[in-house]
Amino acid sequence: MAPAIGIDLGTTYSAVAAARPGGRPELLWNHEGDLLTPSVVLLSGTDEALVGKTAKHATKNVPGDCVELVKRRDDAPGWTFTGSRGGVRGAAEIQGLILRRLAEDAAAALGEPAGGLVLAVPARAGDAGRRALRSAAEAAGLTVAGLVDGPVAAGLAFRVTPGTVMVYDLGGGTLEVTVMTVGDEETRVVATGGDRRLGGFDFDGRLMEHVASEVRKLAGPELLDGGCRQAELRERCEQAKHALSRAFQTRLFLGGPDRSYTVEVSRERFEQMTRDLLQRTADVADDVLGRAGVGWSRIDRILLVGGSTRMPMVRRMIERRLGGVADTTVDPDQAVALGAAIAARDLTAGIARLVT
Questions:
Q1: Structural domains present in the chain
Q2: Which end of the chain is more exposed for a tag (fewer CB within 10 A), N or C?
Q3: How far apart are CA 43 and CA 55, in angstroms?
Q4: What is the dihedral of CA 164, 74, 38, 317, to 10 degrees?
Q5: Could you report the per-residue pLDDT of 306-347, keeping only the tens digit for each?
């Protein structure tokens, strides 16, 4: 039997994983040789669309034809995107293009179509949001076996044991914090909350503001004018943010017509300029705990999910509140997709208790 797959459609990056009967789940390589696929779509005036790294790079050349952060449009049902060469696409259609690309990459990696597909969905998504995601996938030609809440999927990947668990998911574009009770036979979401406009993208934006200010002092405003230069600046700042998760200082290089410019940034300075963003995530976590009726001391385990949890300040903040160690044993970029694949495998085996 072909393995089942799970897809995590992320705001900035997406992933697909497979789980064979009796085997461990694993992420699948995409057509560009990566495990993570940028959730970016390059649209032309025809029906052709490119998804992934190529589309992300194109934001530096043809930003008017590239769609990013489409999941942030979930609360705007009438939103559409019109490319510079015509063609109007809605958010559901664009999400469907990403999902189809992921499913096609999975089939290529496996050598056969998947035996079943489960999509991860935010725990706070209502019935309308869940139907919309399923419909987007089906309109793209995919057969969806079921949906699984993202934090529940993460729990499967982390192999959580019975207790009260918090899943703190800070991705590239959105934040979701969930408290759930895990039992031997059932996992129940007690409370969930989040912010679909708070993620690594916004931390990048603060760094962009700082670097732009420094560059203007050296070169004037014209170096950063235009969407193409802004896309290049964002890419450099995203890379610098990643570097600052591993080192205490890094340098950004920006090329001008006559010379290159260097801006140094320290981790301490980056944390200062984003302190309020981090506090917003803490406020969401406190609110979710309050609605769940538990305090930090009642949490048995905290799972850090989403690539932005790699920022050292995030882990420090969580562990300071918890008074213990957060669980980082599963790659935060992969956890939801891996768990969705486990749910898909269980579903094909007749175990559907966590899938809707």
A1: 4-160+332-348 (3.30.420.40), 200-273 (3.90.640.10)
A2: N
A3: 9
A4: -40
A5: 999 999 999 999 999 999 999 999 999 999 999 999 999 988
